[in-house]
Structure formats: structure tokens, C-alpha cells
TrEMBL record:
Catalytic activity line of the entry: a uridine in RNA = a pseudouridine in RNA
Species this chain originates from: Lentibacillus populi
Keywords from the named record: Isomerase
Family, per entry: Belongs to the pseudouridine synthase RluA family.
PROSITE patterns per UniProt: PSI_RLU
Gene Ontology MF annotations: catalytic activity, acting on RNA; pseudouridine synthase activity; RNA binding
Name the record gives this protein: Pseudouridine synthase
Domain of life: Bacteria
Amino acid sequence: MLGTKSVEQTERKQQVTRVKWTITNEYNGMLVRDYLQQVQGVSRRILKVVKFAGGEIRVNGKAQSVRFPLGTGDQLELKLPPETIGTGMYPETMPLSVVYEDDGVLVIDKPAGIATIPSMNQPSGTIANGVLAYYKQQRVPFTVHVVTRLDRDTSGLLLIAKHRYSHSLLSRLQREGKVKRHYQAIVEGTLPMNQGTINKPIGRKQGSIIERTVTETGKQAITHYHVIQETAAHSLVDVNLETGRTHQIRVHFSHIGHPLVGDDLYGGTSNVIDRQALHCYQIEFEHPFTREVMRFNSAIPEDMNRLINQNV
């Protein structure tokens, strides 16, 4: 947990990222290792990388080991080493809609039709490739750490950690339910209730490496929804996920007989929109360093807006 009285800041200068803290009286006498792990959530793996891959720990400007005892008012600095970009990952310049950025996190508004990360079927042209080019322009020495991934044809907000330390903290916050996403989806037909919860386990469909299905052998998946607007043929719903299974929204609404419009993989008609009608319109998370609750919104895209309003 972050010390409530500690002061944390980050700075980046020419491919060096440093995270700094001022030690308060409650941590007087604590070893550097214990402070970093117990108070600031720095994992053993990250400390190992710092030690052996070009990082550094400094107290009051002087290099120290993890066994150094801290005193009130000390300035503790953790220098994170550059990261290795994975094999097959390379930068590609592309327009990116950056909603928010600081030294720890990056929020991007992704259009439909672009994959989040490379795959065997799409090794390039992804958001990750674009982010690498963006980092290269800014001399950011890290690879891409995606916290919240979206399917290729789902639009909306993505949360990306700027380095391995912020990624480890955000991953923990995500497990604790402190990274939340809200979606708007257009489903076929009229739902029997204006609001409800779909609580059905989801697993991989037998014989497919892509499709998921509701199955008793799957992992728990919980989807909450309420209807925003209805037409003769479609319903616009607000969706809140309690869990984050692959294709969860698409599988759950297909399971109850109301697939997403345009989602031909799960039974939706595709003659009125060129992709599944799903948009992540809001992301909310606790900042990994400041613990401030951050909230960002994205307007529903034109193709979905046109679809839901053409039959009013």
C-alpha cells in the first residue's frame, strides 16, 4: 500500500525513468528493500531487474543497496532500466488518439478495425505497434504493457502502463477490482427486462482457438446491464463487467438470445454495421502512484450512433 504521507513523483530524462519518494517518519529505520516491497509494491522481480539490468537505487543522490536503512526526510530514488522489445514487435507510425498520459500510464481511444496487440494473423498495424513508434519519438525506453485489451472490432478506451513497475501495480489493482470499464453495446431485439445480470461461466469453445462459449467447465463471468434506448429492432445497453473474460459481453448476450448487432461470430446480423456494435465508453482506475481515482470518457462512435437512431 502507498504510504498516506509519502510524496511520490516520476521524471523521465533521455531514456531514464526515475521514481522518487520522500521518506516520512513512520518509515524511519526501514530497509530500502522492505520499503520498496511493502510500502510501494515493488516486486522482487522488478528489484532483480533493477539490480542486474542497468537500474539503480539511490538515497539522497548516492547509490545504495537494498539493505540500506532509511531515515526521515531521505530522498529515495529508483531508476528503472530500459526494457527489451519482444521479438516481432516493431514501431509503426500511425495516428493515435491519446486521451491522457503521464509518466506511469497512457490512455488511448482506439477505433474499430485495429487490433490491440500483434498476433499470428495480424503481426503489424496494431495499437501496440503505434505506441512503440510514439515511445520512440519521445525517447521512452520501454515496451508496451497493455492493461485493458479490446478486440479488433471493438472501439473505445484502452489503458496502457508506461513501464513494468506501473504495469505490476495496475495489474494488482485490476485484480482488486479497481480498474473498471463501462461499455455501450447494441444488441438485437428487445430485452425482457430493462436491467439485469448475466452470471454464466465462459470457456473456450471445443474445436476453436478463437470462439468462447457458456460452459459449466468455464470460468465465472458476470455481466451487468441496463437498457438505455430501444428501437423496433435493436436495444442500446450500458454494460458493466464484474469479470473480464475473453469475448464476455459478446458471448453473454448471444447466450440469452440477443447477440450484438454485427457480431457474425456469435450470431449477430452483419448487414447494418461492419463490426460488432461494442464501444468501451468509460474507463476508471486508481492511479498506481498517486492513488487518485482517474475517469475518462469516449463518445459513442458514429456508426453505432447512426444505427441506434435510424429506427427511432
